[in-house]
Amino acid sequence: MSKLNQYLEAATRENTRRSYASAVRHFEVEWRGFLPATADAIARYLVDYAGKLSVNTLRQRLAALAQWHIDQGFPDPTKAPVVRKALKGIQVLHPAQEKQATPLQINQLQQVAAWLDIAISQAKTAEDQTAVLRHTRDKALLLIGFWRGFRGDELKRLSVEFIQLLPGQGMQCFLPQSKGDRQLRGRTYRVPALAQLCPVTAYGDWIGLAGLTSGPVFRGIDRWGKVSDTGLHLNSLIPLLRRLFTQAGLLVPDDFSSHSLRRGFAGWATASGWDLKTLMEYIGWRDVKSAMRYIDAADPFANQSMAGYLVATAQ
After folding, report:
1. Which of 8-17, 54-63, 298-307 has the lowest mean pLDDT?
2. Distance (Å, rounded) from C-alpha 93 to C-alpha 181?
3. Residue 252 in contact with residue 277, Cβ under 8 Å?
4. Crossing angle, helix 129-148 and helix 199-210, to 10 degrees?
5. pLDDT digits (tens, 9 = 90+) for 182-214
6. What is the enclosing helix (H) or strand (E) of 171?
7. Which of 51, 207, 287, 300 could be joined to 212 by an S-S link, Cβ 3.0–4.6 Å?
8. Helix, strand, coil shares, percent, the chain, to 5
């Protein structure tokens, strides 16, 4: 690979490259389409998967096909009116509510952290170093992910050399790039030291136990207790969290995902009186619409006086 191609590849996020490649492969191999494609072919592709794939997935497929044509120097057929109308018609005839991750509530966070503390203690007693490592890592991942409202890809990119511990204050995590950092300037995130459920203490316990001085913070651990040199794969985070929530006894663990940590923190912060601007600055949201997707509106019928009025008028 030439240096130019290396830089061009680096300009696109790894997740985007992988999902775009999968989308193009689906069009060519599964649907047996030809590239470069015509607008009519793209429209027929959408129609064939209407109702089978979500509208968001179809949009992602269009974005991938559009990028392929642009990269190869061909006109973008996805911008044609027939394609846009086909997608709009699919939205009308196949409406679907956007599925969101279940937020991890603060009491659930406490439950999982308490289970991890017990599991760590039992593993130490049994001299099971592999289990001690895994539970200690999972506790750090859980608490940092929640209190910083990190997405899975942000947790994956945390590096030991970019984290600075501040005695009595917390720690600073520098991410050279993230989804909302379009200018690739990087951003420093402050993580608070807390009296309970402390992410800073959990982080210190993990890197001290694993002996980490550089590289990814969160890594795989094999059955012999060897800590990997490479970071956890992004696709492994959701199974890891669901397995952890199952072990801790949370109900319906499969409803949770890595976004549950961010949604849970956003809900906790809102209930604790944080205003939207403060929350957006803390998380790093630049768009109000993005922030509102993570915040559940208050239930107007939860007000007892209103509920009483409605019951009275219904009689």
Report:
1. 298-307
2. 36
3. no
4. 150
5. 556 788 999 989 999 999 999 999 999 999 999
6. strand 170-175
7. 207
8. 60, 10, 30
- Asked if 218 and 141 touch (Cβ cutoff 8 Å), the reply is yes
Residue 128 lies in a domain: yes
Number of CB atoms found within 10 A of residue 27's CB = 21
Q: How far apart are CA 154 and CA 215, in angstroms?
A: 14
Count Cβ atoms below 10 Å from residue 286 Cβ, excluding itself. 11
Domain match, 139 and 265 both: yes
Counting the structural domains of the chain, the total is 2
Instruction: State the burial class of residue 174 (Cβ atoms within 10 Å of its Cβ: 0-12, 13-18, 19+).
Output: middle
Round to whole Å and give the CA distance between 119 and 104.
20
Q: Identify whether 255 is part of a domain.
A: yes
Are 265 and 141 in the same domain? Answer: yes
For residue 300, being part of any structural domain is answered with no
Q: Determine the structural domain holding residue 60 and report its residue range.
A: 3-93
